[in-house]
Amino acid sequence: MKVYDDKHIKNVVFVGAHSSGKTTLAETMLFEAGLLNRRGTVEQGNTVSDYHEIEQQRGTSVFATPLHTEWRNYKINIIDTPGLDDFVGEIISSIRVADTIVTVLNAQQGVEIGTEIIWNYIDTYNKPTVFVVNQIDHINANYEKSIRSIKDLVGNNTVIIQYPIVIDGAQCIVDVLKMKCYKFPEEGGKPEKLPIPGDQKEKADHLHNELVEKAAENDEALMELFFDKGTLNEDEMRQGIKAGMLNHELFPVFCVSALKDMGSGRLMGFIDNVAPAAADLPPEQTVEGDLLERKKDSPATLFVFKTLYQPNLGQITFFKVKSGVLRVNDKMENSRNGETEILNQLFIMDGKKREPVNRLEVGDIGATLKLKHTETNDTLYTPGHPATIKPIQYPQPRTRKSISAEKQQDEEKLSDALRKLHSQDPTVVVKYSTELKQLILGCQGELHLATIQWQLEHVYGVTAVFEAPKIAYRETIQRSAAATYRHKKQSGGAGQFGEVHLKIEPWTEGMDEPQGFNIRGKEEIDLPWGGKLVFYNCIVGGVIDSRYLPSIRKGILEVMETGPLTGSYIRDVRVMVYDGKMHPVDSNDISFKIAGAHAFKEAFLNAKPKLLEPIQELTVKVPEEMVGSVMTDLQSRRSIIQGIDSIDQYQILKCAVPEAELFGYSTNLRSLTQGKATFKSAFSSFKAVPNNIQASLTSAVS
């Protein structure tokens, strides 16, 4: 295969809402360039991009799939991404390594909630972006509505390059950059180039002039030229459009029918001639603070943006060459762990097809097999020239489930599979909770979870059980109480004896010291699970030797790790040990540890114990017309609405919701709003559980 330099490599990622036509457009571009003899379809499950069994079963993209095509002496690397935000990890990784984002819209819908979610990531990374309105030939297509929705999303820096018209029943596209009209045969394919029809001339001239002005705004030399001549030629306009795209201040709009192969060739021409190449991008700042020059003669540096595990093949590592030239058998060092990797094979990937290459130049995207120490987000560099590319930041999980293997002997198999799933998709987060004694899996939603379950069963051969995770409650007290406990054990020889008198009280920040005690020592212990234990030595007259106080405290802390109500951690208590007895022979550390534990437990149960539940700070973005049903649902979940803001046609609800009430919320919100609402949550605080719920929880334990 021909090797392209950084000026002739264009890396684009196709993003957009579900069913906008990204996979079909990618397939059409490969066909148009002659890489395919026959186009596959999503419905038939035979596209180059959606080759995974689960994608063919579901009829939708689940993974981001790298492809490539060649068009007029340029190489276009395409990454086709899923449209559902459950698979946002695949989308973010792809955006991170793309030079240009192609945002595909369904002409019937325009900008959808999925598009808005993706746009936030595009905007964060400041990526050059092209909008493509697809399905212009559909009976319900509404191009004007689509344009309005793009302007609502990105503002007045939207510039129309093309718009659709119909002439004598034939689908046509008016191009105001080239000032041509393309008329397509009914079955699509190569168009006939025509002058712009007379009834469209005024509109086309107006849009052309707008495009000239927008192009001139992004380059001082072009602005002077524009003032001089009153216009710009096509090459000058291309220069200005590219500058505007690189500044993230100009967003061209094209239109196509991917299914009928209308307009895809012109889009590829624009990507070739105008869209930024790797060579156009500024140097990248590394974690170390250095600038990584995107140069061919620099030492090779790779950024790993995707990992995939395939049966009978193992680990496939996808990377972008950030600098230098990479050759087969090159040794590279991993900046995360210092391990050396030898890249024995290099590939260009087109779906599941691997095309071996001997080298890849700066700006290119490639893959290799069976690296032993490298994961997604790692940087590989030429030994002696260290660099670390800033890692991709992934969103926190929105859905959590406890997970275990159906068969106990499969636990190790499950652990290995989950490790690979996390490596493949970092938004799959797996942690063992020592508090809950559960393995907790976090992901982006119920569809994401279903995909994980499918992969565990069909790829890794392990059946997993998913359940609602336990809630990490806390226990505390609401009033003071005192208790005495004597531990005495005699069984021949040295016995055990220890007697402890103590009082406990609720602890709050800044409270006065306890009254009525002779305080001889104080320890404030920040508990690993939050809150405090404040431990006072109030012993008078040496009735308990000070060397036994640490044992008493240790016994108290052991009880605090498994509270009497539900076995949850205890927090925010202060303890005054004020009296007791000891024996000159039988007293020892274990005796006072046991006595302290029993005394504390008895006092705790008499101090009006209270269960606390974790509260999540929940932010929901919902269309205005759907706020009522969402708020009703939130109120049924014991939530407290703390504020409401407005952004465009959306309401932002800020709430405090018990974590126990958020189980299944992702699915419910999607159902209530047809997927048009989004949410994020984060731990906020612990609050007292209502009495009826506490009674239910404690009776279940007892």
Query: Percent of residues in helical segments?
Result: 25-40%
Total beta strands: 38
What order do the strands of the largest sheet run in, or round the barrel if closed? 2-3-1-4-5-11-6
Report the sheet-strand fraction: 25-35%
Give the class from helix and strand content and strand pairing.
alpha+beta
What's the mean pLDDT score?
Answer: 93
The radius of gyration computed from the alpha-carbon positions, rounded to a whole number of angstroms, is 32 Å
The parts where pLDDT drops under 50 for at least 5 residues are none
In DSSP terms, counting alpha (H) and pi (I) runs of 4 or more, how many helices?
A: 16
The main sheet comes to: 7 strands, mixed
User: Which geometry do the CA atoms define?
Assistant: elongated
Q: In angstroms, what separates the terminal alpha carbons?
A: 71 Å
Q: What this model shows, in words?
A:
The protein is α+β, with helices and mostly antiparallel strands. The protein has 16 helices and 38 strands. The strands form nine sheets. A seven-stranded mixed beta sheet has the order 2-3-1-4-5-11-6, sandwiched between helices. It has a six-stranded antiparallel beta sheet with strand order 18-17-23-14-15-22. Strands 28, 33, 35, 36, 37 and 38 form a six-stranded mixed beta sheet that branches. α3 packs parallel to α4. The longest helix is centred in the first third of the chain and has 17 residues, at 201-217. The chain is elongated and about 110 Å long. The mean pLDDT is 93.
